[in-house]
Amino acid sequence: MGRQARQFSKTGLYHIVFRGICRQNIFEEDNDFIKMLKTIQELKQEMQFKIYAYCLMNNHVHLLLKEENTGDISLIMKRLLTKYAGWFNRKYSRSGALIANRYKSQPVEIDEYLSSLIRYIHQNPIRAKIVTHIDKYRWSSYPEYMNESIITDTGFILSTMDRKTFEIYHKQEEKGYYEVNDKIGKSDEYIRQRIIKLIDGKEPKEIGLLPKPERNKIIKQLKEEEGFSIRQIERATGISRGIISRCDK
């Protein structure tokens, strides 16, 4: 079966993850992390994209990137991975692929959870138990938000909250799970956030507590106007697929 085509983001924003082949390390020492950041910085100057967040882990990388023109993402990532892998292989006298398969990308279409996604990216070292405090990890964009920006475009997020608020916000555990895959379709978190917006800030599970006519009207809207499948609505709301399938009758 061939690879599925990538989804392009209407906003130009992508959450990107790439990993070492067989989950092997792609960073062996500090200079390797520095080289990756320098390569990103050089490509930013050439291709004029934005970086809203990043986190470099030993065997994988998270990026939150905004392209300038639709489709730039493919060339950006090809050049980044080719440059770094070539440098790494020469340095360590190795050959063959460094990055597993291809990078994974998830379009980010909803601004409302951008800050949560950035917190999720920054908290990777805590979830991996590398550090206990987020400010102790060197290889993420968190220090750039708290001090001087080097490659991260911090202005947009810091226009919505000051540094102190940003710091307090990041001390709270991010419980959202921002899966990145190459599958066609919208992520569960996207669907959850879209439903929350439609029902004035309530959680999707609360739809099942509404009076039947109101509940059915929302479910019909989710199917017809938002284009969500019965399975997607069932996962988000907890309402059985039998009830969901009847709501347009």
Short description:
The protein is an alpha+beta fold and 249 residues long. It has helices at 30-47, 72-91, 114-122, 124-127, 142-146, 155-158, 163-171, 188-198, 212-224, 230-237, 241-246, and strands at residues 13-19, 50-56, 60-66, 104-107. Strand 2 (50-56) and strand 3 (60-66) form a beta hairpin.
Task: Outline the structure in words.
By secondary structure, this protein is an alpha+beta fold. It has 2 domains: 13-171, Transposase IS200-like (Alpha-Beta Plaits, 2-Layer Sandwich), CATH 3.30.70; 188-246. It is built from 11 helices and 4 strands. Strands 2-3-1-4 form a 4-stranded antiparallel sheet, covered by helices on one side. Strand 2 and strand 3 (60-66) form a beta hairpin. Helix 1 (30-47) packs antiparallel against helix 2. It is elongated and about 65 Å long. The relative contact order is 0.13. This is Transposase. GO terms for molecular function: DNA binding; transposase activity.
What's the helix and strand layout?
Layout: E1 13-19, H1 30-47, E2 50-56, E3 60-66, H2 72-91, E4 104-107, H3 114-122, H4 124-127, H5 142-146, H6 155-158, H7 163-171, H8 188-198, H9 212-224, H10 230-237, H11 241-246
Antiparallel strand pairs: 1-3, 1-4, 2-3
Helix pairs in contact: 1-2
